[in-house]
């Protein structure tokens, strides 16, 4: 809906005349009610202009659109709806996820996954949007955030994207470095959040696994801890009566 300001002058005059008639008491209650009703209709018809295309953009996604949404997009959208009541109109999240990059003898390997390893070179978020015609042909600010298992932001990136009607694949033009990144500490459940023009569109959780070096360090520590526990148990274990008598007999023989 859009306000048409060029009609406000004559509506003000009409409203003033109706108010004079009502306050003067010259008209009967029936006439007064009719005048107020007519003014309300004139106000609704002149001040508010319906835009059918815009109204269509605000209705929920069609069953066909829901069928085309990926499971990740459905989950991410539902989590975002629980966080905020405002969702951008004319933009529908069809897919969301991460693309990891890892060096190999064959070159750089790109992999789309919901689980990443801290041995990967880096990771980039991506989304697929369905853009309504009313929201196309303009620039939108797409914001990606990646939060670690402690809720700390490890990655925040904003990019201007020119929207075209239909489905659009949007890949972040910067990556989150993983290998050798000292700021990335610890594995666990992380979060990817996606915004369009400041409105939260989706929240997707994903898992990160420790690097090979970190796993080896944890394994060596666990083995060392297990060996120490065995030594403590051996030192604290009770001596049997037979061993005690044998040791006492041996000591007596040595004194003789």
Mind explaining what this structure looks like?
The model is unreliable at 49-60 (pLDDT under 50). The protein has helices at 8-24, 29-47, 52-58, 63-68, 71-83, 212-236, 241-255; strands at 2-3, 48-49, 91-104, 107-113, 115-117, 122-131, 138-147, 153-163, 166-171, 176-177, 188-196, 199-209. It is elongated. It contains 7 helices and 12 strands. The chain is of the alpha+beta class and 256 residues long.
Give the CA-based shape. elongated
| Number of E-state strands | 12
Radius of gyration: 35 Å
Low-confidence stretches: 49-60
Number of helices: 7
Specify the structural class: alpha+beta
Name the helix and strand elements from N-terminus to C-terminus, one letter apiece: EHHEHHHEEEEEEEEEEHH
Give the termini distance in whole angstroms. Answer: 112 Å
In which range does the helix fraction lie? 25-40%
Major sheet details: 5 strands, antiparallel
- What proportion of the residues form beta strands (DSSP E)? 25-35%
Rounded mean pLDDT is 78
């Amino acid at each position: 809906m859009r306000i048409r300001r060029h009609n406000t002058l004559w509506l003000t005059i009409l409203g003033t005349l109706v108010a004079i008639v009502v306050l003067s008491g010259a008209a009967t209650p029936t006439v007064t009610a009719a005048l107020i009703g007519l003014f309300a209709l004139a106000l609704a018809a002149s001040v508010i202009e319906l835009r059918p295309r815009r109204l269509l953009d605000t209705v929920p996604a069609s069953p066909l659109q829901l069928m085309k949404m990926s499971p990740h997009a459905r989950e991410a959208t539902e989590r975002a709806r629980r966080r905020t009541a405002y969702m951008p109109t004319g933009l529908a999240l069809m897919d969301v996820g991460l693309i990891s990059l890892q060096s190999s003898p064959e070159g750089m390997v790109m992999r789309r996954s919901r689980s990443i390893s801290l041995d990967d070179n880096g990771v980039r978020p991506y989304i697929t949007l369905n853009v309504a015609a009313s929201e196309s042909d303009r620039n939108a600010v797409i914001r990606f955030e990646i939060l670690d298992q402690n809720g700390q932001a490890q990655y925040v990136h904003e990019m201007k994207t020119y929207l075209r009607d239909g489905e659009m694949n949007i890949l972040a033009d910067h990556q989150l470095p993983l290998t050798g990144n000292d700021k990335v500490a610890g594995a666990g459940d992380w979060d990817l959040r996606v915004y369009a023009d400041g409105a939260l569109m989706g929240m997707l959780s994903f898992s990160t696994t420790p690097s090979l070096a970190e796993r080896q360090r944890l394994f060596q520590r666990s083995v060392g801890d297990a060996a120490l526990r065995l030594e403590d148990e051996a030192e604290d274990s009770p001596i049997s009566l037979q061993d005690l008598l044998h040791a006492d007999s041996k000591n007596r023989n040595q004194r003789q």
